[in-house]
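Take a specimen:
=====
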Amino acid sequence: MNKIILASQSPRRKQLLEWAEVPFEIVVNETDERFPPGLEPDEVAVYIARNKAIAVQEQRSTEEIILAADTIVVLGDNIIGKPVHREDAVSILLALSGEKHKVITGVVIRKGSTEIAFADTTEVEFHTITVSEIEFYVDKYKPYDKAGAYAIQEWIGVVGIKSINGDFYNVMGLPVSRVVRELNKLIS
């Protein structure tokens, strides 16, 4: 596979592509993660991912393959972003405790004017988690760069998740098996 450009600073996306043995380099151009009102959650994730891909594509060769992704957490009808501080992280995790929520990753792959865009959804259910467990997690792992204030591969995921329906790696930030299949379609 040809080297692609990963438009993300996420260490989890980097790790997943390394595990999949996809050659890549990281190039990021900061983008606004706001979105227009009225979009469905899967459209929000793709909208933000597309903006990330376009921002990088504008500074690179148009023949390079750009991969961008954005992950959001949805509880009921509410999109939950990254926590802004400790109290926000604790509040988010208290809301997720004992509940089912959706983790949606929007993916955009661009090469020139060709674009592949999709959203992958995984349903996650937490056991009831105590305030002291949540505070322990937030203080030790500082999940401020993570939508929903948690990482499934960290302590809270290991001890707190009751069930998962869908792609585990999507919850980490990239539905990597689908990404690899889409990249192969684009390259062949």
